[in-house]
Amino acid sequence: MRILIIEDDTNKMRRIANEVRKIRKNVHLTEVRSYQNGVRSLMSDQFDFLLLDMSLPIFDISTEEDGFQVDPFSGRNILAEMNRKNVLVPTVVITMFETFGEGSDLMTLEELDKELSEKYPLIYRGKIYYNSSEINWKEALKKLFEEIT
Description:
- 40% of the residues lie in helices and 22% in strands.
- By secondary structure, the protein is α/β, with parallel strands linked by helices.
- A hairpin with a 6-residue loop joins β7 (99-100) and β8 (107-108).
- The longest helix has 14 residues, at 10-23.
- The chain is globular and about 45 Å long.
- The relative contact order is 0.16.
């Protein structure tokens, strides 16, 4: 099974990858850290599954870059691009935020989950709330992998 993880937080990425490897022994993981590289990977490679963070920088962060921009809805934009290009990789959003955006754009995780389910029924498989101090996300991830096989 080939899985793409799009996640900019190094610790969260490592913990998710380790948990996936515990659940699935024969898995090939590809890890990218930005909207741009996530879309590029999805368009150039074949994946069986996508674990997607919602809030991502547009470009990979490097020591030379200054003022990188994090888009609170990058994950939603990736799903829109996948839908537009007919890249039907089953996708789960895994996020450590309960709200996204600001002001009139403010949206709860539950509202976002509902929107994504309605807009992308062929791609979107649900959300996992990640909290590094709890194990609920690990149980949700394990259940998810049981459902897709």
